[in-house]
Amino acid sequence: MAVALVTGGTSGIGAEFARQLAHQGYDLVLVARDEARLASMATELAARGRAVEVLVADLASREDVQRVAERLEDPARPVDLLVNNAGFGMHVPLTSPDVAAHDRGFEVMCRAVLVLSGAAARSMRARGHGRIVNVSSTAGLLAMGTYSAIKSWVTSFSEGLSVELRGTGVTVTALLPGWVRTEFHQRASIGTSKIPNSLWLGTEELVSACLRDVEKGKVISVPTIRYKALVGLLRHAPKAAVRAVSAAISSSRSSESAGHEPGAPVGSAGDAHQAGS
Questions:
Q1: Phi-psi region of 217 (alpha: psi -120 to 50; beta: other; left: phi over 0)
Q2: Which family is annotated (predicted)?
């Protein structure tokens, strides 16, 4: 029986990955920090006839990350598909003297992705097959602080890992969502009222498109034709234009978020990460 491990699999994009993979016949290993939400999600998936294992882990903790890595490398319980989805939104100025929020972002959305992808790749490569999905963001193509920098790294890392694993039977896919209707923006106190309705995506269409791309072995997965066009423009536009667009979006968010206390990121490290630009 195929097994998928999903970090941040209790809500948003992560929960949708868990549901669709269960529908495809995968048993699940769910990783998150919130034990109650893990139990609820496990009950839902078990009712669909799937075996579900839960791992309570805060991916900002290196010890917890190592426990998940060891699960991925357990030869007696192979994992066929890894979805690195855990994370949170960051609305913290780069000039803030308190770098703790940035450190936490790096731990959860960079280091954990590095360690868990490496563990999965080693195990999958030894068996000659496997799939790794890293949830990045179209924000990684913009210049909007630490979150953009982190997501740029996730995309670049995924591409590099796919090159390293070429010919091994193991594929790597970076998913670049845009604005997705989840809890993500509310948790991070990010204003969204000025975002056109045409740019919003549902989790179901996003994950379905990604899993189709995974089946095709695509390294970069961008949902919908409109986002493919936008990503193409961002990749080929002059850097000055990209910075101007980034400044406009950041200004809009800041004006909408006035009255919210800035500082630490809002969200659970290890719980659902709903990526958005």
A1: left
A2: Belongs to the short-chain dehydrogenases/reductases (SDR) family.
DSSP string, 155-182: HHHHHHHHHHTTTTTEEEEEE---EESS
Query: Which bin fits 49, alpha (ψ -120 to 50), beta or left (φ > 0)?
Result: left
Q: What is the largest CA-CA distance in the chain?
A: 53
Residue 7's nearest CA partner among 80, 107, 113, 79 is 113
* Rounded (10°) angle between helices 203-216 and 12-23: 60
Give per-residue pLDDT as tens, 124-164. 999 999 999 999 999 899 988 999 999 999 999 999 999 99
Distance CA(126)–CA(271), nearest Å, equals 29
Question: Which are the catalytic amino acids?
Answer: 147
E strand intervals along the chain? 3-7, 27-32, 52-56, 81-84, 130-135, 170-175, 179-180, 200-201, 220-221
The tokens for 219 are: 């390294």
CATH numeric code, 3-256? 3.40.50.720
